[in-house]
Specification:
heterodimer; A: 270 residues; mainly alpha; MetI-like fold; two-stranded antiparallel ribbon; 11 helices; 77% helix; 2% strand; B: 290 residues
């Protein structure tokens, strides 16, 4: 490859990166803008009005953010657990219906989510799962699983399982094998699939709205009316808090993981 | 543990239960679209609701709009996603800052991306302000209306912002592998950079590119958020129209909602079947040439 090509490539890549970064910078500025009328390019003055609205207490946004984080953490935990189990069966075993299971793992990303949402809502009403948190957790889980299963299958296949056999031959108990071998080896996959499942759940708007029916208020559901309103300072502040809280959870995931292993690499952000 | 015969079945139990819920939901919706709703006293299997949809110009408009949005955004996302992935592989930046920036759109939800588009492309958005200060336009109304229009510019733009990095992320691992092994070999044998990409790297990446396209297409066909936040009042995209029919106080509108869903379902099913057909043909071609 000639050097001129590489330089052009780097410039194009920088353009891509800028396209990603510019909107984020724009909402960062907007969320601290006091007044930013047409047609000026930068705000006249700055204020903390947007963040005060969220953290001020009377909007209730903080409680919703808290319960929303807990809900998505539960989804992430269950998704990792189920993803790890399914991946294990797909990598290590041959069994009847394996092809069907493989099909089942991709169905939720191939079938449009509105179709699923309304169909399952009618069912959930009958079984008392509509308008409550359990129903919302179930549908979030269904959306997240294709991704966690894919990640965990890749990691499990790479790890192989030879180490487990060796430990077993050397007399380790199943619990010891799980704690000393399996978990540390799968940890990178566990962290990335937990992040993936968390963000899928935390971002859901339509499914939460329809299945939760207004009873289950997540941060995503709460912020949509603000995003539609003309008040861009408030809308930006909500967006900013959404993104930062997700990143914070990811950092906590990684820090927790690092406490369990000496391996110091980052998982989501390489 | 590995010799325990029931193990794989037990390991799959939670997934099977969730899959059954998923399938039951889809089947239930489809049955309702064919007029089978015992709760409402409808017991007769009928194609009536589908036929009526195809007679209503506004609903036909919804179908057309949704297909247009999905096709345009997914095709562009596939092309630019592959380009992005190629650029990253070519410049050797698969790790580090650039890659982390590329990952950002994956964690930002569609509802926030919709707001990005509003803040930048609306008539008093940043782009309009920039053009005003450069003297290109003299008032807000001189700036072309890009949002809430029937060409769905805002919706497609928002999808691209999310989906180009998604496609790149999906393709980059395999592309980096091929490029460092077979691509290297091709170049050693005298192929140019362009020949290597066109005849070696791209064909070998095609299965994962197609996979990414399929996921992105099905998603944009059935997603409610972006057309709801950025769409025109007429025609509305299929998911938005279906939800309106679904929430209609008159429950007899429900079969229409389900029939609109049914159309989305059958379109994505058609694409999936087509995809697997092509995949099978490719496998046969490869096996046949041996």
């Amino acid at each position: 490859m000639n050097t001129r090509g590489i330089i052009v490539g780097k410039i194009l890549l920088a353009c891509f990166a800028l396209t990603v970064l510019i909107p984020i910078v724009v909402i960062l500025v907007w969320s601290f803008a006091a007044r930013w009328p047409w047609p000026i390019l930068l705000p006249h003055s700055f204020s903390l009005r947007g963040l005060q609205e969220i953290f001020g207490g009377y909007s209730g946004a903080l409680q919703v953010l808290g319960s929303s984080i807990v809900l998505s953490l539960i989804v992430a935990l269950l998704a990792v657990l189920i993803g790890t189990m399914t991946a294990r069966s797909l990598v290590f075993y041959n069994f009847y219906g394996k092809k069907l299971i493989e099909l089942g793992t991709i169905l939720p990303i191939i079938i449009p989510s509105t179709v699923f949402a309304m169909g399952v809502h009618v069912l959930f009403i009958r079984f008392g799962l509509a308008d409550n948190v359990v129903g919302v957790i179930i549908v979030h889980l269904i959306c997240a699983l294709p991704y966690t299963i894919k990640i965990m299958t890749d990691v499990t296949a790479a790890f192989g399982g030879k180490l487990e056999e060796q430990a077993s031959v050397l007399g380790a108990s199943p619990l010891q094998i799980l704690k000393e071998i399996t978990l540390p080896c799968l940890l990178p996959g566990i962290i990335s699939s937990a992040c993936m499942a968390y963000i899928i759940s935390f971002s859901q708007y339509f499914l939460t709205l329809i299945i939760g029916g207004g009873n289950v208020k997540t941060f995503a559901v709460m912020m949509v009316p603000y995003l539609q309103s003309g008040d861009r300072t408030i809308a930006s502040a909500y967006s900013l808090v959404f993104i930062c809280s997700a990143l914070l959870v990811f950092v906590i995931f990684e820090k927790t993981a690092k406490r369990f292993t000496k391996n110091g690499s980052n998982y989501f952000f390489v | 543990m590995k010799n325990f015969r029931l193990a794989p079945y037990l390991l799959n139990l939670p997934l099977v239960i969730l899959s059954l819920i998923f399938i039951a939901g889809i089947v239930n919706g489809l049955l309702q679209s064919f007029g089978l709703i015992p709760d409402l006293g409808l017991y007769e299997f009928t194609f009536k609701y589908y036929l009526e949809i195809f007679k209503r110009p506004d609903l036909l408009g919804s179908i057309g709009l949704s297909l247009y949005i999905s096709l345009v955004s997914s095709l562009l996302a596939a092309v630019f996603g592959v380009l992005l992935s190629l650029l990253i592989v070519m410049t050797g930046k698969a790790k580090g800052l650039t890659m982390n920036i590329v990952k950002i759109p994956i964690i930002i939800p569609h509802i926030v991306v919709a707001f990005f588009v509003i803040a930048i492309f609306s008539q008093n958005g940043l782009l309009a302000r920039l053009m005003y200060s450069l003297g290109l336009i003299s008032s807000q109304t001189d700036f072309p209306a890009l949002l809430y229009t029937d060409n769905a510019f805002g919706i497609i733009l928002a999808y691209l912002w999310k989906e180009i990095p998604f496609v790149a992320f999906f393709v980059i691992t395999i592309m980096a592998n091929i490029s460092s092994t077979l691509g290297e070999a091709a170049r050693n044998l005298g192929a140019s950079q362009w020949q290597t990409f066109w005849h070696v790297t791209l064909p070998l990446c095609l299965p994962s590119i197609k996979n990414a396209f399929l996921i992105v297409f099905a998603f944009s066909l059935g997603a409610y958020e972006l057309p709801y936040l950025l769409g025109a009042t007429m025609p509305k995209a299929l998911p938005v129209q279906a939800y309106i029919e679904y929430m209609h106080p008159d429950l007899l509108h429900r079969p229409y909602a389900m029939a609109l869903n049914g159309i989305m379902f059958f379109v994505s099913l058609f694409i999936v079947v087509l995809y697997y057909r092509l995949l099978q043909q490719n496998i046969r071609k490869v096996n046949g040439s041996e």
